[in-house]
Amino acid sequence: MIDHAAIRGILPHRHPILLVDTVLEWHPFDRIVTTKAVSGSEPCYAGMAEGLGRSAYSYPKTLLIESFGQSGAVLWLESIRTRGESLDGTLIFAAARNVEFHRPVYPGDTVRHELKIDQLVGANAFLSGRSLVGDEPVMTVGEAIAVIRPNTPAAQEA
Question: Which tens digits make up the pLDDT trace of 4-13?
Fold first, then answer.
């Protein structure tokens, strides 16, 4: 297991956009299982009017996808580290395709992301997976693409 403190050493994200709490399973260059606990104190719920029904507290789908992407980043970055290598560039979540949402996520839910690396091609990773609350699927991602962009002056100007 990789705890939250260690995740902070892997990802550059910080509160309020660090959306991975723990890593339950990790198999380098293969698969990862992570969790994200959704709380009613999330910044996305700030300023909401009183008296709203449960549906108003559906966790934003964009944040669910971001949490999934960060899980993929942990998998790839830690896999690179196991080879004694480091990332020469910036990791970017480029795209998600064939994403299907099955049910909303609400405060009190703990989302479990299960991802696998389908293929690595140069500085590109192709991932897929699903997210669950308990045994219930909440999201399926057919394909996600992450890329490493070089930290060079020419790349920064593009």
Answer: 999 999 999 9
